[in-house]
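Bumping my old thread because nobody answered last time. Still need a sequence for this structure:
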């Protein structure tokens, strides 16, 4: 009688397909560039993350609820394309934990911050759940998200909204037409 090695236990959870998530990174306090690079490296070390591609860094004017604030510290923004098998809500929770590791405090909406990580898109997933809005509801209005994303993927598209290149062109045209720079940068 030949003994065969035991079969490995069957994982009752179905295997999740690899998905590319779009994460926006921003900081306007501390060593902004170093913080963005450290955050991207930390995302790459998350479990079930296979790859992280970080865009070039962009410097932008801070935006407050009432418009651009040239007196506030400027932001450094980037976008990362994250190849992952993490569920979107799990990835979002881990992004919040990374923000906290970098001293993020949520005191003021659109306030200064050491690190801001936004889940912009997760493949073609759409969600209107209060704890998981996908795609990000204001991504189409933010050149500081669209431009770095286009640096990585010229064919980028916000699910259900449109092509990033067309959205960015529309924002640039609007800004040139009425002088409103709010869409171009900041929070």
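Sorry it took so long. Here it is:
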């Amino acid at each position: 009688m030949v003994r065969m090695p035991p079969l490995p236990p069957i994982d009752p959870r179905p295997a999740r397909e690899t998905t590319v998530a779009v994460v926006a990174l921003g900081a306007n306090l501390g060593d902004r560039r170093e913080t963005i690079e450290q955050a991207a490296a930390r995302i790459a070390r998350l479990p079930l993350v296979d790859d992280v591609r970080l865009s070039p860094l962009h410097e932008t004017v801070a935006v407050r609820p009432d418009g651009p604030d040239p007196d506030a510290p400027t932001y450094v923004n980037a976008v990362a394309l994250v190849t992952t098998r993490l569920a979107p809500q799990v990835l979002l929770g881990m992004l919040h934990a990374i923000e906290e590791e970098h001293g993020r405090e949520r005191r003021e909406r659109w306030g200064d911050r050491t690190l801001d990580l936004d889940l912009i898109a997760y493949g073609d997933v759409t969600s209107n759940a209060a704890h998981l809005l996908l795609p990000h509801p204001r991504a189409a209005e933010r050149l500081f998200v669209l431009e770095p994303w286009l640096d990585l993927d010229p064919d980028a598209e916000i699910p259900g909204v449109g092509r990033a290149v067309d959205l960015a062109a529309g924002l640039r045209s609007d800004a040139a037409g009425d002088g409103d720079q709010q869409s171009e940068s900041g929070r």
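The two ends are 69 Å apart (CA to CA). Let me know if any region looks off to you.
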